[in-house]
Hints:
By secondary structure, the protein is α/β, with parallel strands linked by helices. It is built from seven helices and 21 strands. Residues 1-19 have low confidence and may be disordered.
Amino acid sequence: MPTGKAPKGAWQASPASGGDRIGALPDEILRHVLSFLPAQQAVQTCVLAQRWLHLWKSAPGLRIVGADGKAPVPFEEVREFVDSLLLLRGSSPLETFELKVAGAAVDVRHVRLWVRYAVQCDVQILRLSFLGDTHARLRPDDPPLASRHLTKLELRGLVFNEDFLDFSRCPELQDLQIKDCSFNHAKRISSLSLRHLSIKRATFNRSSRARILAPNLASLFLQVTAGRTPVLEKMPLLVKSSLAICEVCKDCCSRSNYGDCGDESCGGCIRDDSASVILHGMSQAKSLVLIAFPDMFIFRRDLRLCPTFNQLKSLTLNENWCVPDEHPLACILQHSPVLEELILFLYFKMEEDCVGMKGRFNPKELPPTISSHLNGVKIVCGGVDGNVLKVLKFLSKLNISFSFVE
């Protein structure tokens, strides 16, 4: 292993730089450095010197991305290159495989061959991003992933089929991140090993609910932008959860607070017998952020059979938990016996600068229905209007007064 003398023909540094510092590095470190370069640049290092001829082949990371390392690369421009690259690279182990491509003509079946190659190289971190005007669509017969080594998976711009999100054949998968994907055909997201799940800007089916079965989750971030909110199965190990149901979701009804107006022609109301969609699945969390948009009835419906949040220490809610009536806020407070911190974001009236208020109270003076452990209440709002005053009036009944903070 070279320690001071540069190999013949290696990069030559100027005398002022103290010699050939790159040439003095061990091969292991050079491979590690190459794994951060776009694949096109990593391969080009083979012309530097004899020593570099094959280093790129055993780099632990392989990134098929744009020249700047961040932007996507057109699929058709790299298709032949990647085919040749994988053939020449052989079966050296991979820690990370990243693919970020764009274009309307992405051949998903061809990409599947590349993914299969990465899996055969025992890849641990797999990132697949399809960026463009249309999502990359999985075929109905595309099978789920199967890997004994995969620990982290990031997916973007995909239309899932019915079975792809079954991760029973990925026993070491710990971290799953999904962004800008369609779950229209997916009935279930399931994994017994998963610890961290993040789903951003998700489109779900409009007529039926997917189910999330991940009993060992420690953290969950779920943002539903369209379709029906998925059912969360029990997550007894959940520590932190954040859930936002956006205003264009299908779970809304202008005639009923609970999605049961009785009109068979109503496209928003629930017609299943699920006891709970969201809250029971998250009832063991220690930290919750719950964002409800107007007319979304899922939270209110779940509160009719509200679980007890025995572990909940920190709770963050937006204005739709308090107005037009404070019942949702009152209900969840009554079912949070060890709550220590409450944060309310009340953006009825937006100003350039937000206003912050901090609650002051004596825990001994709180009603018996409110956690005696509560030691902090904070309100952030865009200005004090009638709606904010209404919330303050409700909290004052709990012997909580507020002062402005910077």
